[in-house]
Design a protein that fits this description.
With about 70 residues, the protein is mainly alpha-helical. It contains two helices and no strands.
């Protein structure tokens, strides 16, 4: 019996894994400055947002109340 939602935890982990994958790819591109953005800025921001969403989903799964059947 788990105290968290395994489906939500898995979904959060997948979001984080995909975000980290694209973050690593985006780090090889030039980010640029605040006024002249480089080609790596947009993928870097999107991967950061994806990681944050995954962490929120995983944290919410820990707070979820589930019965013994996981419903």
């Amino acid at each position: 019996m788990t105290n968290f939602s395994t489906k939500d935890m898995a979904a959060g982990a997948i979001f984080v894994a995909i975000g980290v994958f694209f973050l690593v790819g985006a780090l090889s591109l030039a980010i640029g400055t605040a006024f002249k953005l480089g080609p790596g800025y947009f993928p870097l921001v999107l991967s950061g947002i994806l990681i944050a969403i995954g962490l929120v989903i995983a944290a919410a799964s820990l707070a979820a109340k589930h019965g013994p059947l996981g419903s």
